[in-house]
Amino acid sequence: MVESAHRRLIDPVLIGPEYRIRKAAEEAGIDLAGFDIEAVPHSLAAAARAAEMAAAQDVEALMKGSLHTDELIHAVVSTPALRSGRRMSHLFRFDVPAYGKPLLLTDAALNISPSLRDKADIVQNAILFARILGTALPKVAILSAVETVTPHIPSTLDASALCKMTDRGQISGGLLDGPLAFDNAVSAHAARVKHIESAVAGDADILVVPDLESGNMLAKQLEYLGGATASGIVLGARIPIALTSRADGVTARMASALLAKLVAHNSRRVPG
């Protein structure tokens, strides 16, 4: 956060018990001179105050610090002025050395076992975000274990339904295909070998996973074995929420703050 402020990416407001904030800063050798601090007694109060400030438009984005994710998300969901009508979802942006462009992955951190309706919102959130990043027609791969629709694997049924929902205009702004296995979603060679004719296969901008467990494992594999660098954001509320892991370093936190800034700036141009 401090490095993001120094690089003029954000103007932060620190919310939490002031003595703990100052103690942590002192231990890290950080000078908090010039930073605004909203003093509250504990983490739940910090989440509530953050949501209150966002609803009052005193801040344009939220960023998770050391409090638990569910505390912050609960405060946002409990604030009517921050709800957009769509399900909130988390999205990772990855720079993967073996892939020729940024790769978005959703939802690997928020929705545990999303319903078909939830997945429609998750897909729409990701499409809108990809367009903010400059991809005019994002290619969305709906992942499963196989490329064919089978009633024995429910995620293949959801994938086919999401594609039909796009045909009917229930999801807009992107090009969907699925079910697709991970290999043929990101590898044109794998798609050719499996005789998959698709504008999405092998060239996906967005990967939509069946559930949080599969998404979380895929995200960590990309990062720890694939050498990917990650940043994360929560979408679907009236304000963006930069969401990072406690294990993330400075680069991931700055990148997540930048994602939130891009969404906030877009909201200025396109309110609501």
Q: How is the CATH topology of the largest domain named?
A: Isopropylmalate Dehydrogenase
What's the overall average pLDDT, rounded?
Answer: 92
Q: What's the shape?
A: elongated
Q: Helix/strand-derived class?
A: alpha/beta
Give the SSE string: HEHEHEHEEHEHEHHEHEEH
Helix fraction by DSSP (H/I, runs of at least 4): 40-55%
Rounded to the nearest angstrom, the distance between the terminal CA atoms is 27 Å
CATH superfamily of the largest domain: Isopropylmalate Dehydrogenase
Low-confidence stretches: none
Largest sheet: 8 strands, mixed
The CATH architecture of the largest domain would be: 3-Layer(aba) Sandwich
Assembly form of the protein: single chain
Number of helices: 10
Tally of individual domains? 2
How many distinct beta strands? 10
Percent range for β-strand residues: 15-25%
Briefly, what CATH class of the largest domain?
Alpha Beta
Give me the Rg, rounded: 19 Å
